[in-house]
Design brief:
Layout: H1 5-19, H2 40-63
Keywords: Endoplasmic reticulum, Membrane, Transmembrane, Transmembrane helix
Pfam families: RAMP4 (PF06624)
Subcellular location: Endoplasmic reticulum membrane
Length: 68
């Protein structure tokens, strides 16, 4: 099957218009402001759990005499 000349010309014209626009992103689609991927409350909870568990481990190791 062959493509009609008119359809091929339309596709080529569309491609030629688009090739000059590549790489340019409009200002409206870019993210502005402080948009964190993680909620600050969840991040704070995670830090609390990690630091708290490490402190608990250090205290437990110190009270058991070194090697647990």
């Amino acid at each position: 099957m062959t493509t009609s000349k008119r359809l091929a010309d339309r596709k080529i014209e569309k491609f030629d218009k688009n090739i000059l626009k590549r790489g340019f992103v409009p200002e409206t689609t870019t993210k502005k402001g402080k948009d964190y991927p993680v909620d600050p409350i969840l991040l704070g909870f995670f830090v609390f759990v990690v630091i708290g568990s490490s402190l608990f481990q250090i205290i437990r190791t110190a009270t058991s005499g070194g090697m647990a």
